Fold this sequence. Notes:
The chain is of the alpha+beta class. The protein has 2 domains: about 10-200, Fructose-1,6-Bisphosphatase, Chain A, domain 1; about 210-335, D-Maltodextrin-Binding Protein, domain 2 (3-Layer(aba) Sandwich). Helix content is about 30%, strand content about 25%. It has helices at about 10-20, 30-50, 70-85, 105-110, 225-235, 250-260, 280-295, 325-335; strands at about 60, 70, 90-95, 100-105, 115-120, 135-140, 160-170, 175-180, 185-190, 195-200, 210-215, 245, 265-270, 300, 320-325. An 8-stranded mixed β-sheet has the order 4-3-5-6-7-8-9-10, sandwiched between helices. A 5-stranded mixed β-sheet has the order 12-11-13-15-14, with helices on both faces. It has a two-stranded antiparallel sheet with strand order 1-2. A hairpin with a 4-residue loop joins strand 9 (about 185-190) and strand 10. Helix 1 runs antiparallel to helix 2 and helix 2 (about 30-50) packs antiparallel against helix 3. The longest helix has 21 residues, at about 30-50. It is globular. Bound molecules: 2,5-anhydro-1,6-di-O-phosphono-D-glucitol and manganese (II) ion (2 copies). One manganese (II) ion (MN) binds next to strand 5.
Amino acid sequence: MSTIKRQVMTLDEFTIQQLRDFPHATGELSGLLRDMGRAAKRVNVEVNKAGLVDILGDAGAVNVQGEDVKKLDIFANNQFQGVLQHGISCAGIASEELDDIVAFEDNVSCGSKYICMFDPLDGSGNIDVNVSIGTIFSVYRRVTPVGSPVTLEDFLQPGRKQVAAGYMVYGSSTMLVYGTRRGVNGFTLDPSIGEFCLSHPNIKTPEFGNIYSVNHGNFFQYATGVQKYIDLCQRKNKDNGGPYTQRYIGSMVADVHRNLIKGGIFMYPGTTAKPKGKLRLLYECNPFAFILEVAGGKATNGIERILDIQPTELHQRSPLFIGSRGMMEELESCL
Ligand code: AHG
Ligand code: MN
Ligand code: MN
């Protein structure tokens, strides 16, 4: 029998195809990923017209970390929360924009084995100036019994327990990238059909790259080891003897996505003012650490593997060093 050859595979088709390899799978995780993709399309529409409608600017509130909240942060949070709450594949969520976890109390949601955590809009300081922003999420299997409402314990799990993690970039094109233990795959939104289409199958990050990403403005606040490595980046490159290229957008999603594809290292070290840095372990560091490790890279806080850190609170921060294995090893020799 001849098979029909068609170029593109949509996110929905892909997640369903993955299921075929596991006849006993319930399809719950696939459902959750498709729900996230659906919400991302709505967020994408709003992000794209952010310059048109009067949705720009501060919402006037301050989030739990004491930072200004932009209106689109709240819009995005509500989209992801809403789609998961109405879906059947998630028992509860935690979000960078919410003080506490939200346990979905209806019978269907309580019957789900997964919880999801997300940074609904990352790099939101860049919205006003039309620079790429994104969403980051991670999925864990709950530890409390299925059928009961989830508790904080379900969310305070080390990152190595992630079942899946992903991100969306709302950039020059919109992408959704997600990883499970089986691999990392990237989908680009085709606006003409409104579908995420598989464009980057089985992503592996290069062993070495040419890019280092760090906020140079904080240089004198970094530990000597970090300064030493930045200095090295500016002097030598293992491959050709020249310096690495510095790239720093200020949206970690866009910075880490570029480095994942091209090879590179991204750093948000602790500073004298903020010894734990800025990034949140559960919403930013863990999902990217999971994706990079599956793609062949590495992620640490400078001392230990990000995925081994036992979280003690929902919104805790962590220094982050993440990227190509070879460059991470160069860094480690300086720290
Ligand atoms: P968010 O918009 O969710 O608060 O996160 C912004 C983060 C991250 O995306 C980015 O890499 C970092 O903040 C930039 O911080 P600096 O301006 O301190 O370099
Ligand atoms: Mn963020
Ligand atoms: Mn955010």
